[in-house]
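Review the following:
>
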Amino acid sequence: MTKNESNKRLYYTVDELYQLLTGCVSKQSIYYQIKTGKIPAKRFGEKPLIPASYVEDFLYGPIKVSRNG
């Protein structure tokens, strides 16, 4: 593992994701999306941790268009 790889963020908390998305969604919505499996998360005790790879893909990846209307 290189120094850059060891310094790379692995997870975001719900609060951190909320701050990135302020004005777009509520914390309750984030928790609900985690509960229903739409946002992947690992638990550390009671605290859900969202993989940084998911957050980065969501924020910077291509927009996915739903064909269901």
